[in-house]
Amino acid sequence: MGLRNIEQALDPETMRSRLQDMYRLVDETLNRVRRLAFELRPSVLDDLGLVAALERYIRDYRERFGIEVEMQVIGLDGRRIPPAIETAVYRIVQEALTNAAKYAGCQRISVLLQASPRLLSVIVEDDGCGFDVDRVLREEPGNRLGIYGMRERAQLVGGSLAIESAPGRGTTIYLRVPLEDS
Q1: What is the number of other CB atoms lying within 10 angstroms of the CB of residue 44?
Q2: What is the Cα–Cα distance from 164 to 152, expressed in whole angstroms?
Q3: Are 172 and 138 in contact (CB under 8 A)?
Q4: Beta carbons within 8 Å of 118's beta carbon, 6+ residues apart
Q5: Over the stretch 107-159, which tens digit does the pLDDT of each residue have?
Q6: Beta-strand (E) ranges in the chain?
Q7: E strands, 84-139, where?
Q8: What is the pLDDT of residue 182?
Q9: Which of 17, 80, 139, 176 could pair with 143 as two cysteines, CB 3.0-4.6 Å apart?
């Protein structure tokens, strides 16, 4: 539509103005696409692994939302885990943090990644307003896609996801993913 508006411009000044608007729109769109591509599978996940990717995401998250996020990592010490698990865990933590920013009204979030030879455990906990998990799961699917997406990602890599929350008590998400010896 923007190109049609340019085509229909009657004078050079109107055309230039509309072209500038189109340049801004294209630039904004490209920036959004880049951010989306990064959030889906950031290259740092391939290059440096899960911990580095989450550290970068959390740094950006703090700046964007002004919420303090603390991450603790135990037992990974440079260990790489299978790419499918890295992606699933990254996306689940990302969704948990996004939900906290949208709905929790929280001030602090803690993220714990703990690995043993055969299991990766992830806990994401916020100090927000909490919610009635059973009620939300009974609502229309459009209101709970994030929760179902997290559970589905966990199941796709053989893991499990549990959510504990209550109004006024914050939310804790528990993810457990089996690991092969590596």
Answers
A1: 17
A2: 17
A3: no
A4: 178, 179, 180, 181
A5: 999 999 999 999 999 999 999 999 998 888 887 666 567 888 899 999 999 99
A6: 68-74, 108-115, 119-126, 160-165, 171-178
A7: 108-115, 119-126
A8: 46
A9: 139
